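Re: the request from the purification team.
They wanted to know what the chain is likely to look like in 3D before they choose a buffer screen. I agreed to run a prediction and write the result into the notebook, where they can find it.
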Amino acid sequence: MTEFNNFFKSAFSVDNVIFGFDEGDLKVLLIKRGAEPFKGKWALPGDLVYPNEDLDAAAGRVLEELTGLREVYLEQVKAFGAVNRHPLGRVITVAYYSLIKINKYVVTPASFAQKAKWHSIAEVNDLAFDHNEILNACFDRLKQRVRTRPLGFELLPPKFTLTELQHLYEAILET
């Protein structure tokens, strides 16, 4: 029989997929990891959840540390809990995505990152951990949501053209 204390040997984290739109291209904000595991590899911004912290608060903290942003669109998508998803031990992560206006904010890498940079979503591959899977799940959710909610406005400047709006939706829906 498994000892009850063994159930409390898992860690929880949040990973944020931060989408932006620039020059007709849908982009995602990635960090270059500054520490092992996967030092020097591109990854989604994320962090462990503090013992006294709610999941949504942790996701907001990670977003704020990178962008200085508070109160932006942030949606919980899915939990990822494969036993071997993290090489240091059992880490269950909850994925979120957010939508920000790229040109409105200066991105600053958090303490755990060497660098933070926007990447075209079409060119992202070979991320650390299971972050490709997380990115794909969040992108799929965004595609679903833009069909029923006016989320595109979260990515566009206050004044935009119909052509810019069309390009945004074409980029998200891959049409």
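For the purification team: The CA atoms of residues 8 and 90 lie 10 Å apart.
Please add any questions underneath this entry.
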